Amino acid sequence: MNRKYFFLSLAFLVLSSTIKAQNSDVASISLQEAVDIAVENNLTLKRSEVNQINNEAALLEARGQRFPSLSASASGRYNWGRSINPVTNLFEVRRIGNINISANSNVPIFAGNQINNSVQQAKVNVEVGQYNIAATRNDIILNVINLFVNVVFAKEQVNVAESQLRTATDQLTRTSSLVEAGSLPLAEKLDMEAQRATAELELINASNNLRLAKLNLSQQLLIPFNEEFDVSVPDLEAEDYPLESINANGIFSVAVETMPEVKAAELSIESAEYGVKIAKGAFYPSLGLGANLFSNYVDQATFGDRESFNTQISNNLSQALGLNLNIPVFSNFRNKASLQRARVQRNLSEIQSLEVKNQLRQDIETSYTNAYAARQSYQASLIRVASLEEAFRMAQQRFNLGALNSVDFQVAQNNLFSAQADLLNAKYEYIFRVKVLDFYLGKPITL
Question: Which residue of 151, 257, 423, 432 sits 20 to 30 Å from the alpha carbon of 59, by its own alpha carbon?
Fold first, then answer.
């Protein structure tokens, strides 16, 4: 659950992205385009949507139980030898062909209110299915956003590695000139060559990590991967996203009214309650009205002249109308067991609803704590980078003047690059955490 809502913390990138619509063959895609592609292609979501059709079919079936049923049938046969003429009811010894036509209809009058409760339960199940689809869609988007963020961070790491390599290359060139002029010993050049080789390795590793992050994202989108695949991210400033003053409890009171999984869990309790009512209805008598029409035709003459098909059908027509009363006296404990299972299901639904709400509360508390901690980390990182930038500037001047050896210079350089990478991570994390809290509060995810 904690990661489930993290995607919403990044959704603000959607509205700020200015890249036009892309397809799977275009090099760079925005977050919105990545989400759209994933939702369109994901088979888990398609399966959930297809399963929802079953819920709708169950509702249609439940509603249909309120209407009279109607069926019609016809049969024909030939008899040889001694048989009863179905019209005269006399034994005859000859071939007799006859056709039977019938129609039956039944309508429930009272069934322990099981039909009405079944309809209501089916309606609730349709709503539960809709919320479950929304939750499934959120899970899919979560996976996409997490992979999208991995690409963003990997790109930032490549930028840092490239900057580090440029600095190492410049210093190697400077040191080589001083060594050739005899101002520095050869060991200084060898140290700078090692530093540059290390920077090249860091860039290679960062580039490989970026490629792997892009590959994972494209596979999640179910599109072919190519080397030109990339993502587009707008520039962001952490200062534009102040942390809300509302506490975690206040955020929870808002979020509990909007989250789809909470709604689904609450409706599941309502559905289970209807299941209990349906099970109780089986203990009541049921009353139904039945009607029947029947007629037949015989191809042999009866008492003289042979009558036509229409005449025989009309003359042999019979009707019946009756009430059917069924009183459950003893059902081998089936009804009692069904009621017990329905009550257990209701209890399980209540427990699940509490679990969902408790998990949501914990997620909000964690998100609020993470946002607060991220703000502290970002502010500390700003101070750290500013200090290390000045320290590196001074180290660079001393190194160029020959007053600082390559080892100490490398330490100053590595400290600065490490602090810059930490600042980038702290910046993004802080913004994302703030947007998570905005989502829980029902605010539009905008810049």
Answer: 257
